[in-house]
Amino acid sequence: xxxxxxxxxxxxxAECALAKSAKGAACVQLVGQVLDNPxxxxxxxxxxxxxxxxxxxxxxxxxxxxxxLKIFAYGTWKDYTARxxxxxxxxxxxxxxxxxxxxxxxxxxxxxxxxxxxxSELEIGSVRELENLxxxxxxxxxxxxxxxQQARVFEVAQMGELLSRWHSGALxxxxxxxxxxxxASATAAELNTPVENEDKQRKSGRTKGKLAMGFGPRK
Length: 219
Known about the structure:
3-stranded antiparallel sheet, PCI_dom
């Protein structure tokens, strides 16, 4: 039975709304539909849904669906192939999408992507297939750039607006997490300081009391 989304909302919003009630096998099916969806390339919001996170503690097939979604959100084609036996086989649509996301990840690190690097990273068997994938990335507005067939390189102009916002948001989120961790450490240090001072005061008071009673240090 296929899970139907509300088409009046954006695809991601609709899928997240469905994830509020989809549990277990239904949630696994929903994840599969999201990964097949050709218009969805950002998955962080879905990963935050409680029913999706609950898959991690479920049966192996449920945990595999959760791990696969994490790879689509943060990983690359090589991350998938290293765990393919555990995660299962991708559909043709999923494989193509993950390879496109891998190109975007590489483009974030370098503005010049040699064909040889892409062929190896994406495990693509021919230059024609690679160029078709890159053209789809450009037409799909995941990134912009040009093919230099003579030099066998793809020159990246910029990442697509949506994925650029996601990349910036990820960096902001990381900075926020680090800031909160630092603030928590500072708060813990402040809370510990009065206790340490109180201990020192108690020890000092006990020492003074002993001296007042005639109990000095041993000589």
